[in-house]
Amino acid sequence: MTRWLPALTVAAAVTALLLLLKTDISDMVAYGAYAGLAVVGPGVLIYRALRRSPHSLVEDLAFGTAVGLVVETAARPVFWAWPILTVILLRRHLRTPDYPQRPTIGWSWAVAGVALGFVGYLGWAFMRLNPPVPERGPVDYMIDQLNLLAVAGDLEHHATLAVPELGDEALPYHWFAYAHLAAAGRLTGIDLPVLWFRLDLPALAVLAVVLLAVAAWRVTGRAWAGPVAAALMYTVGETVLPGRAPAFFGSITVYYSWSSRSVLYASALSMPLIAVLAQILRQRSTARTWLLLALLAAGVAGAKSTVLPVALAGLVCAGPRRAWRPIAVLAGVMGLALVFLYGGEGGGLTWKPFGIMADFARGRPLVIAAGLGAYAIAMGFRLAGALFVREWGPVERFLAGAALAGFAATVLIWHNSWGQHFFAIAGFPFGAILSAAGLRRVPPAGVAAAVGLAVVAWNFTIPPPRLAIYGVYGFAALVLVVALATRRAPAALVVVLFAGGAGLPYDAVHHANLGTAYHVRVTPDQAAGARWLRAHSTPDEYVATNVHRVGSGRQADQSLAYWISAYSERRVLLGSWGYSPESNAIQAAGGGVGPARQYWDPARLQANDLALYEPTPARLRWLWDRRVRWILVDRAQGRESPRLADQTALVWSAGDIVLYRLTGPCR
Fold first, then answer.
1. What keywords tag this UniProt record (predicted)?
2. Are 38 and 187 in contact (CB under 8 A)?
């Protein structure tokens, strides 16, 4: 029982957090049953059938869960039956094998501590401020959250993904994380916003921590590299004084761990992929290992488009003569994903060296050089353990190459919504494992100095953006002074690596939920109207609306209002267009930042709006012919014509929100 205590403690803490956030117990039980029976159980059986040999129970459970997430997406057409079929076909793997390895109680508690810290950050920085549905008053949701919730809702009801606010327009996207949520919603009946804002995030967070710990153990052959690698990614923040740094600094865990569910989902799937590739580079593979590699590569390709490119770069660095076969597998999978998932689109990525520093560098070479130095200090100090790796073989070169490729791509590639940061995030687990391999012990002097620096970091903030570089250098100098005072390299590394320990708690307290700068305010009336629509319509019925922009705040001129499709789980004929392939293409071509302000088909937009503001039988018939059966008007965006009620049926209203139903084609 003692060896299960760390896992039980984490489970109890997550349960307590969910109860404090007033999550329904029946939803928690249903989600737990779904995860165990439809993901973990069948995934473990498939992993046991494909792995080369047993290692430890924690590996089977962790890697098996990752496999279960991949197969869950592949089995969407038969998602009711695939767990049962898996048990029938692989029943001989139900018997628990004799494991040669067992984690120590100290290892388990260390990993549990990292997981608890990470979940605590997510709970305070994000979950407590985002109720699943606004009921007691308006709530400011980050725009991306509602857009991605709408994507999950679309996948819950349709076989192929479309831009939720643009009717049938196909959306080439890494959608596997959202298909996972959609499958969970359909199998359990749990409300999708509850899955999104409550149940799924802490579960994925704990899984990602355990997966990285197990992957580092397997890759390095040293058990304690596991919790160290997990801490470097999910506990230690950037080595920079907390505060608003220029956009180019980015982050690894702060903000990105909750702002886009695909980041956390993809990082989880990356860990077993790294372990399998390391096994292949050490020439310890069987035919089943290659099948497992292809399965994990396919899952990663659909989870986040940035992972396979950095993994391929790492394999090239490992040495093409040894790595040509895994290179071929990953390149083949990436090619298929480019065709079938991404439709050959680049998603708005363009080649623009140092474009990420454009907000302050302005092409000046000395400033760019200083910025690169500051970036290396802020983002790379946690990977300094790589300097103490004793032997550099193909695996070590693979890990280093992937990490460096991630940072290089972030600096050299441009995206209108700062999506280039995802390359650095994709490469970081590779570097964290390598850094953990070089940290063979953690001396008390280093820990004490690191705690002291974390306190210093907590009490200072970065100066204005143009002076931020000097703040970083000053902080780095302080780190090095303390490191030299220890007179021991391992202690110095501990100081450097853990000096960012204040980053996550500082962000949770001072910048929780990213404030309100990039948010849309959703009222209880708006959410109630959208949810009434969900309850009284079918997924094949489209919605017409006058809501195209967020309506308030600094983003009032941007087309980023996704609350209708997020809460109704219905496709809107023409709502917001900011997150669409055309918008990305327009901004990439023009070098703009953010989404396209104007819609590229003004005649279509005018036809949509005139049907609400100046309705005629012909204009309403235009909507009907495009599968529109409902009209949602937000009078805060513009009041509809009184004639609309004469030609349709008014079915629901509250505050500024009015719903009409088209009863048939107008003639």
1. Membrane, Transmembrane, Transmembrane helix
2. yes
Report yes or no: 633 and 658 within 8 Å, Cβ to Cβ: yes
What tokens does 397 get?
């070169």
Which residue in the block uniquely carries the two structure tokens 């309850």?
A: 535
Strands 413-414 and 350-351, by their bridges, are antiparallel
Cβ(52)–Cβ(289) under 8 Å?
yes
Helix (H/G/I), strand (E/B), else coil: 487: coil
Most confident of 200-214, 317-331, 374-388, 576-590: 200-214
Spatial neighbors of 642 by CB under 8 A, at least 6 apart, are: none
Residue 51 zone, left/alpha/beta (φ > 0; ψ -120 to 50; rest): beta
CA 620 to chain centre: 40
- What are the φ and ψ backbone dihedral angles of 87, each rounded to 5 degrees? -65, -40
d(CA 277, CA 323): 9
The answer for residues whose C-beta is within 8 angstroms of residue 634's C-beta and 6 or more apart is 526, 545, 546, 547, 551, 656, 657
pLDDT in tens, 486-505: 555 555 556 555 556 777 88
DSSP for 259-319 reads H-HHHHHHHHHHHHHHHHHHHHHTT---HHHHHHHHHHHHHHHHH-TTHHHHHHHHHHHH-
141-199 per-position pLDDT tens digit = 999 999 999 999 999 999 889 999 999 889 998 999 999 999 999 999 999 999 999 99
